[in-house]
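Practice problem: predict the structure.
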Amino acid sequence: MRIKKLSTIVANQIAAGEVIERPVSIIKELVENSLDAGSDSIDIKLVNGGKSLISIKDNGDGIFKDDLKLSLVKHATSKITTSNDLLYLSSLGFRGEALSSICSISRIMISSIKNGEKQGWQIYNEFDSMDTNIKLSNILEGTLIEVRDMFYNIPARLKFLKSDKTEYINVEKLITAYAISNPHVSFSLSHNGKLLKKFNRVTDNNDVEKRLSLILGKRFIDNNSYFKSTFEKIVLSGWVVNPDINLPSCQFVFLNGRVIKDKVVNHAIKQAYKRYDIINQNYIIFVDLPKDQVDINVHPSKYEVRFSNNRILHDFLVSTLSNMLIKNHKIKNEVSLDLSNDNQCTSIKEHTTTNYKTEEDEKGCIGQQENIKLESLNSYPSLIDAKRKKLEPSRIHYFDAYERNETQNSLTNNFGVNPENRIDNNILGKPITLINGYCVMLTCENRLKVVSLLKVSKALCAQKIKNHGLESKPLLIPYKLNFNELVSNKQRDYMEVLGFKFKLLENYLTFTHVPNILKDKKLDQYLEEFVRIFCLEQNFIFKNNSDLFENFTDFIVKQAPKINNLSEAIHMIACLESEFEQETQVILDTVTTELNLEELIGQNLL
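Answer:
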């Protein structure tokens, strides 16, 4: 057979198969659009499980008349404009595929009025055609979308749908999830003319539990434990139901407010419960982390995601859930750590999983400025060892393995080295506090030491360049900058020596490769300033490559954000000790200023 190009209609119907599987797929896309439009009231109506009719009405911002026709065009969206926007997504939708896919497998009608406009408009597709027409609408607020006769033009897909009841149950679960993650939005769900679910919005954060009680029932509220735990920039929060209580299945996971079904997260949850042979597994988990640390653009359904560091999130989640089960539930033969008489934080998670913090922990640690990682507290070895002896061998193995794994992952991610999980107290002393994000104060005998984190960072950066060079790493998505200047051959040489590869076309400087030392950093924070210094300042001349590398190292250090907590600072110093193992004392002397404690006390400076 000869190769031939498919028609637009057939191609769209095939592509729609990735986005639209069943009625709940359509509802997910449309509800997310309503939420992105700022709606605080969303009404969903179904007929025959959504096969015959799906109607969604919201009170959101509405759509301009001129945008209505464009809304049904593939890859047309108001959510993003450039590829760089994919790195910092704040909306639930962004691909511009949903409405065009729905249009290709059903009969769709959209009525909408833009906020501030006096007249609404309606668009609909013709029978057996992708052609659309626009006419006046009497809609008074927001947007109304009606989807009729799903898969009427693809009978092969229609026969794979389940019974009306099953399709409705799938929709009900989804709306329940959205109602949990969006307490300030009202939801109603009707099926075959009957109102079956109605969740009124709450205006006060203190009423969130009332909303949960309305959604999941009073038994859920009476038998759950709330948790909130933080590690680096990852925040885990939610509710875990007492496993001794048998409740209807309640398992929800949200990432930055988005419903997800992720293999890494699900495996972590199963692992935490499996360790205690718990059958009743009910939970609501919210995962919040910086947008640039997660890739949502993995699959059109947007259920699957990709994390920049799977391992840290996985182990943090396992540890947090394990601690909740130990602390709040009756687990046979389980012993938790008790350091309540020690002037340290009393939560097991801080002594077994680095610097995780919870709201309860903070209340119990008034006056303690920073969380210090367990591996850095070598001044308390006997205390920690004594408490650890109470744990079963399997627990010790697990938590020790986690400490090594997490610390090495974090340090490798930031500096490319795998240090020992400690700071040598014989050399530096005990960390006391972080000063303004740029220095660490330590005490050793009767001396105070101040370590400059800028100098530490520069030493690490310079050593990494010395050991590994500046290899070019390709960018998954090329980074574009507006640029109207000429790049001289000399400046081009500088950039290529440093590991940058780029193209200069149509007033854009497009980076395709960056040095490996910048690979995991926020490029918009570094590249604009780099171009300004290294491309626009014509008098920026370097004597040789060593001079170029030194200036580039200074540039990276100055652009780096300041350290937020003592744990990060301890990591950095531990890296320095590991990287310069043979000459640790010499290097530490270059980054450390020593103060005499007795002299300071004598002069009433302390």
